[in-house]
């Protein structure tokens, strides 16, 4: 179960690396590294160093890859005592600080079978298992007899298919090389295929057979970087908290002043209201036309064929709603009065089908102080 989970994690990692998101993250990480001073890059992000192992019938060749530059480090004849090789390699790797560098075994292209396989797109989540099932149908081998790896070539979402390049090599030949390296304490974490002098970028080794090489220096640097980020985040959060407390204190002081100002304004408003209320009735009586006179004037103005359903007498206006045989002439009659002016309908007149009279809604301003 652990192996299955590890394989799934590895497949997800490869999918992310080959996706547009993975490409963007690699580009972004490179840009961030370029922003760091050179001394910081050397300390926090040391150049990637890896050992490339290549076996022939007579010798073991060890190359060092550093900052994308490849140089030959050592060549060991296979006829010598493996214990001497182990001792010599240990001293050399310790001297060059390569004990924690990953080791990759490169095998020749002519011992690897390459084949394109088309599978349903739904199989992408478990490609390794799907290729294992298809192995004996797509190749002359069974899945248990080979080491294999794969690379996604194309995803055709319209057709619902995925094209995969399958790379495999028989187990006996690779097992003998792995055993030879194991005797020299050089168990690899990657078995790659060399095409035209360069690694293809695959790993034929199953997850459970990969040698785990831990670069403690890199991990320590990343741990320091993590601690620095946490401390920086803590300082920023503390600064924000202090600033928030200062803002809250200032806002509370402003709110206290605002509340005091509101109380002063309320007292002032109460004084003004009391002063205005003292002369309100007197001013109202002096300025308003008596209601009785307005009622009498309306009674006098309206002809006998006009009836009021509603009469509203305001401080400076009057509103009349009712029915009349000729509502249009009411405007002229009201404007002729010394009590009213600016008479107008509030809306269009309508015909009452029951009485055959026009329904009107008329409003007019009262002429203050006149007719009194």
Summary?
By secondary structure, the protein is of the alpha+beta class.
Description:
45% of the residues lie in helices and 27% in strands. The protein has 372 residues and is an alpha+beta fold. Among the domains are: 47-214, 2-Layer Sandwich (Nucleotidyltransferase, domain 5); 287-366, 2-Layer Sandwich (Alpha-Beta Plaits). A 6-stranded mixed beta sheet has the order 3-2-1-4-8-9, with no helix packed on it. Strand 8 and strand 9 form a beta hairpin. Helix 1 packs across helix 2.
Percentage of residues assigned to helices = 40-55%
Terminal Cα span: 106 Å
Say what the CATH topology of the domain at 47-214 is. Nucleotidyltransferase, domain 5
Biggest pleated-sheet summary: 6 strands, mixed
Name the average pLDDT.
81
Strand content: 25-35%
Cα radius of gyration in angstroms: 48 Å
CATH architectural type of the domain at 47-214? 2-Layer Sandwich
Number of helices: 10
Strand order of the largest sheet: 3-2-1-4-8-9
Class per helix and strand makeup: alpha+beta
Secondary-structure blueprint:
Blueprint: H1 2-18, H2 20-35, H3 38-44, E1 49-55, E2 59-66, E3 69-77, H4 82-95, E4 103-107, E5 113-120, H5 127-138, E6 146-156, E7 161-170, H6 171-183, E8 190-195, E9 198-199, H7 216-278, H8 280-287, H9 291-301, E10 306-313, E11 317-324, H10 329-335, E12 340-345, E13 350-352, E14 357-366
Entry keywords:
single chain; 45% helix; 372 residues; 5-stranded antiparallel β-sheet; Nucleotidyltransferase, domain 5; 6-stranded mixed β-sheet; 27% strand; alpha+beta; Alpha-Beta Plaits
